[in-house]
Amino acid sequence: MQVGDLAFFYHSNTKPPGIVGLMKIVASNVVDPTQFDVNSKYYDSKSTTESPRWQTVTVEFERDFGQIISLEQLKQTFNGDELLVVKKGNRLSVMPVAEKVAKKNPDYD
To answer: Is 56 part of a structural domain of the chain?
Structure first.
């Protein structure tokens, strides 16, 4: 992801799972500090400060959608080629969303 990209805020561990808002990427290629913390579940013994293996992004709140756009609603609106999150078994955390797909959301400006 690049600075300026927009991203959905997606709750995956809720009932129902779905998109609840929008955020903007304000920094990319940020070294993830949890990889060095031996007390973190994300600790990576192969990662060093000289050669980190994990990067993250910094995000900024853009807006709340006011109500969840459930995974079920997304499946009714998009196919797996348009929006990868609706593809059965897909567990991607970061994926591109085409602008024409984003514009199908009534909250898109």
So the answer is: yes
